[in-house]
Design brief:
By secondary structure, the chain is α/β, with parallel strands linked by helices. The protein folds into three domains: about 5-20 and about 235-380, Nitrogenase molybdenum iron protein domain (Rossmann fold, 3-Layer(aba) Sandwich), CATH 3.40.50; about 45-230, Nitrogenase molybdenum iron protein domain (Rossmann fold, 3-Layer(aba) Sandwich), CATH 3.40.50; about 400-425, no CATH class. It contains 17 helices and 14 strands. The strands form three sheets. The protein has a six-stranded parallel sheet with strand order 1-11-10-9-12-13, sandwiched between helices. The chain is globular.
Length: about 425
């Protein structure tokens, strides 16, 4: 059998194992925090000069220009494989359709005669999207961040991604940026890119919000700069929980777990199996199929560190465990999957039925794959147009309403020791 961190009945786990399973929150390494703080301070003080020196230290090449010219992006789009371009366009179209259906509208409320309160959704002026580079390029992350921003009506969309050996981000990242109608692209990576977008430099504009996944340094930079810029939910390693029963295909469940485990040695994958025989079948499928995976060494590391196949007694126990775990992805692959969806209150996204592979959601369905991890799905949502909109409240009162509110407002103000407030309201108490 393949090595797993968690195996056997859920109810038999030790206190320490249950804590490790359900509490995946983690503070950034102190060394990472210190390094990131130094980078932020350097970018704050020296701007573009600091960014170039960071590229010389960490990237394969120092870009001739931090900003990638538009014609370079167009050539990259024209040069990619036609099949990949069709897939990327289909993905972008589906994201646009889903996000367009989620656009909020102004709301007007009249709580009393003469009082009108309006809440108006206003798109942000400028947002930054980060797309990781390094060991792999992620055009899907470009689409997931930039397309919703465009649909929300953001004034300017900026993308930062690390330079490759050519001195520019990878061609597929540039192609995705062109498809998503990104306004400006910069060959900047890591914590320096986050600092540049949060603080602004001579070349990089200061943005209102930064979204997109990244490594520990990127995440630490986003958290350290929260006072200067808004961010999406803090991101950690990929997560998947699968709920399976006797009708589930063990091979399908195993393939889904292996697919998520190949992301990262720290990825978290867990099967909650209703019955010991189901757990045994999934366990056997994992052990057999892992040898077929190109990234088997990464998968084994992830399964040994955070993976699990656990038996539960009932659907109710599985639901309780899933809600406590609050995973990034939850695949419900049981007979009555539809019947339990409304009881799930802690998941970044719920995939209903065996055919709803996480891979489809990651790339093609139009649902966003930038999702909360580390149990934050209990309070955070996946990225959407709502992340690129702020609400403005407008208040209107006529004279009659002002007279009506005056005495109660005076009572509140005096109780809180604010006589100036009381006088401001009191002047409306008489004709």
């Amino acid at each position: 059998m393949i090595a797993l961190r968690f195996r056997g009945p859920l109810s038999a786990l030790s206190v320490d194992d249950r804590r490790a399973l359900f509490d995946r929150s983690s503070s950034t390494d102190a060394t990472v925090n210190a390094a990131v703080a130094s980078i932020i301070a350097d970018v704050r003080m020296r701007g573009d000069r600091a960014l170039r020196e960071l590229a010389a230290r960490f990237d394969p090449a120092v870009p001739e220009h931090l900003e990638v010219p538009r014609d370079v992006r167009r050539r990259a789009l024209d040069a990619i494989d036609p099949a990949l371009r069709r897939a990327m366009q289909r993905s972008a179209d589906n994201i646009a359709a889903v996000q367009g259906a989620s656009l909020p509208k102004s709301v007007v409320c009249n709580p009393e005669p003469g009082i009108s309160i309006c809440r108006r959704p206003d798109p942000l002026s400028c947002v930054g999207v980060y797309a990781p580079g390094g060991r792999a390029a992620y055009p899907s992350s470009v689409l997931m961040g930039a397309v919703p921003a465009r649909i929300a009506g953001v004034g300017e969309v900026v993308l930062c991604s690390p330079p490759s050996a050519s001195g520019a981000p990878s061609d597929i990242v540039l192609a995705a940026a062109e498809l998503a109608e990104v306004d400006r692209v910069f060959a900047i990576g890591g914590a320096g890119a986050i600092a540049a977008m949060a603080l602004g430099t001579d070349t990089v504009p200061r943005v209102d919000r930064i979204v997109g996944p990244g490594n520990a340094y990127v995440t630490a930079a986003k958290l350290q700069l929260v006072g200067s810029v808004a961010i999406d939910s803090p991101a950690g390693p990929s997560e998947l929980v699968v709920i399976a029963d006797r009708t589930s295909s063990p091979d399908v469940i195993a393939f889904e777990m292996l697919a998520q485990a190949e992301h990262d040695p720290l990825a978290c994958v867990l099967a909650l199996c209703i019955g010991k025989d189901v757990a045994r079948a999934v366990d056997e499928a994992l052990s057999r199929l892992v040898e077929q995976q190109a990234r088997a060494s990464i998968i084994r590391f992830a399964l040994r560190g955070q993976g699990g196949v656990l038996a539960v007694h009932s659907v109710d126990e599985a639901i309780d465990a899933a809600n406590s775990y609050a995973p990034e992805h939850l695949l419900v692959a049981i007979t009555d999957a539809e019947g339990i969806v409304d009881r799930i209150r802690g998941a970044g996204t719920i995939l209903i039925g065996e055919t709803a592979s996480v891979a489809f959601g990651d790339y093609m369905t139009g649902a966003n794959h930038v999702l909360p991890t580390n149990g934050l799905a209990r309070a955070y949502s996946g990225l959407s147009v709502l992340d690129f909109i702020r609400w403005t409240t407008c208040q209107r009162l006529d004279a009659t309403a002002a007279r009506s509110l005056s005495s109660d407002t005076v009572a509140f103000a005096m109780a809180e020791g604010l006589p100036g407030h009381a006088l401001a309201a009191q002047q409306w108490s008489v004709e």
